[in-house]
Write a structure and sequence with these properties.
Length: about 220
């Protein structure tokens, strides 16, 4: 059990690997390239990149400005962006799998990356074999985000045959946790620099990096 629950569900990006400013910047550029080179947006690449960065800041979604103002379809950007995602530049934690294997709960991944990119990321992190039949993308539920609605969390739990009340959801993005909580889950926020969301009532626990969360669980288990 983890916090009295049988199931732990992890976000993938920046939860099962660490956050880096440099990689975030590369991803903004990647999204700009998808917009300009793949989707034919008539815009200078640097301007597109600046707008992606701005869009993340305002909407927590780099594409939102382009959906609203430039006629870009969320589905098209979702696919083009994930095809270009430079997974090989992610820096994995050492031996994360050894800790994950010891967690006394059923474990799943639920990601806003598409299936193509999430498979590549899990392989790159050394977690693919473990999560092979236990990872799902938002696209499996016909959506592109998981910070809009509690429905996708309920659908996820139905898919794996688990009551949301029996599940812990772990995510670095607090805008996702709001809806995981609304669905009935216990919520864990992974933060990096400082715990910027500690005033949010829908966050039950917060840990600095995934390793400190896992260490805490394994400490309880050992006690
Ligand atoms: Mg994330």
């Amino acid at each position: 059990m983890v916090f009295g629950k049988n199931v732990v569900i992890y976000d993938l990006d920046e939860t099962l690997y660490g956050k880096s400013e440099k990689f975030a910047d590369i991803l903004d550029e990647t999204m700009a390239e998808a917009l300009v080179y793949d989707l034919g947006l008539k815009m200078d690449l640097q301007k597109a990149k600046d707008l992606v960065t701005k869009s993340y800041k305002i909407y927590r979604d780099g594409g939102e400005i382009f959906y609203q103002q430039y006629g870009i379809e969320p589905r098209d950007l979702f696919i083009a962006y994930h095809k270009r995602k430079p997974v090989e530049k992610i820096i994995p934690y050492d031996n994360l799998i050894d800790k994950i294997k010891k967690v006394p709960a059923e474990q799943y991944v639920f990601t806003a990356s598409d299936r193509y990119a999430s498979e590549k990321i899990l392989k790159h992190l050394g977690l693919y074999e473990f999560f092979k039949d236990r990872y799902f993308s938002v696209e499996d539920f016909g959506v592109f985000k998981k910070n809009e609605d509690a429905k996708v969390y309920k659908d996820f739990c139905r898919k794996i045959g688990v009551n949301p009340q029996d599940a812990v959801f772990v995510d670095d993005s607090y805008s996702n946790l709001e809806f995981a909580k609304e669905a009935g889950m216990t919520t864990v926020r992974i933060y990096y620099k400082n715990n910027s969301a500690k005033d949010k009532k829908y966050i039950d626990y917060a840990f600095k990096g995934i390793e400190s969360f896992l260490d805490k669980i394994l400490e309880y288990k050992a006690a």
